[in-house]
Amino acid sequence: MSRIVRAAAIQISPVLDDDGLGTARKVCKAIYEAAEKSVKLAVFPETFVPYYPYFSFIQPAFRFGAEHLKLYERAVTIPGPVTDMVAEAARETDMVVVLGVNERDYGTLYNTQIIFDSTGEILLKRRKITPTYHERMVWGQGDGSGLTVVESAAGRIGALACWEHYNPLARYALMTQHEEIHCAQFPGSLVGQIFADQMEVTIRHHALESGCFVVNATGWLTEEQIKKIAYDPALEGPLRGGCFTAIVSPEGKLLATPLTEGEGMVIADLDFTLITKRKRMMDSVGHYARPELLSLLHNRQPAIPVHYTDEPELDSRIRPVVSRGEP
């Protein structure tokens, strides 16, 4: 059956100098603007609220303690004021929203992706499974429970953040759940043109391999923001370029002109008949798979630091931890 969903990949700059809610308000404003263009799925950049930790890329760890603590103060709790604001905007516009946030869970920050359904319900809260390079000094690790495709008003949605796309098994875990729309998020304004070039290759390849649409959003820093974050002209270069906000079809085709600088929206209509057209020729988890030769073990058990034996219904999949000397 023919089905068309209008999607928007939103390239946008954060609000750096407030309590963290300024960026969330900007997200909501963009949601209402997208609704005026009949958008039913909006994707925002990686850890956009309150902002991506650019400081960790250009400063040594022993110098960014103050900035890291500031990020703790402004980080998002789930549920909390930020998720309430975005949920209301999603509900009022009848829109599915994919948002990247810095999530605070007591003493740890996580790179978290939230999928809001058009009712405002949070369908998925997932954490980046392995922070990349400098990010390991900022965020904790997620687990396999977040590698989940969810049914939304816009279709079956999966999501990964940034270099998680270079983990082929993470991508395959989502493919096996038959994602129809893959929502990708990158920080943007980082590393330079080579990052944008790599991003294009990555998202177009996933679209082809998964046979799904990819909606990719990157952030954008203004010149004033770059100067403020860098504090030294010699450090400004790594905070420019690296933007490639785009929408890709299951055939690997760019459905609209990508956005590589400035704020704006890339909007395209996703015709779901293209999914079947692609998978008729090559279905990576169906007729093109050879599971008797190659298969994936996916541990979807949440990583919980403690299990209480007095819980009335302890999950039978949880095995007790034993010492080396025990059988």
Structure description:
With 327 residues, the protein is α/β, with parallel strands linked by helices. The chain has a single domain, classed as 4-Layer Sandwich (Nitrilase/N-carbamoyl-D-aminoacid amidohydrolase), CATH 3.60.110. It is 26% helix and 21% strand. The protein is built from 8 helices and 11 strands. The strands form 2 sheets. Strands 5-4-3-2-1-11 form a 6-stranded mixed sheet. A 5-stranded mixed sheet has the order 6-7-8-9-10, covered by helices on one side. Strand 8, helix 6 (193-210) and strand 9 form a beta-alpha-beta unit. It starts with a strand and ends in a 46-residue tail after the last helix.
Quick recap:
This protein has 8 helices and 11 strands. By secondary structure, it is α/β, with parallel strands linked by helices. It has one domain: 4-Layer Sandwich (Nitrilase/N-carbamoyl-D-aminoacid amidohydrolase), CATH 3.60.110.
Q: What's the topology here?
A:
Blueprint: E1 4-11, H1 21-35, E2 41-43, H2 55-58, H3 65-74, H4 81-93, E3 96-105, E4 108-116, E5 122-127, E6 150-152, E7 155-161, H5 168-175, E8 181-186, H6 193-210, E9 213-218, H7 223-230, E10 246-248, E11 264-271, H8 273-281
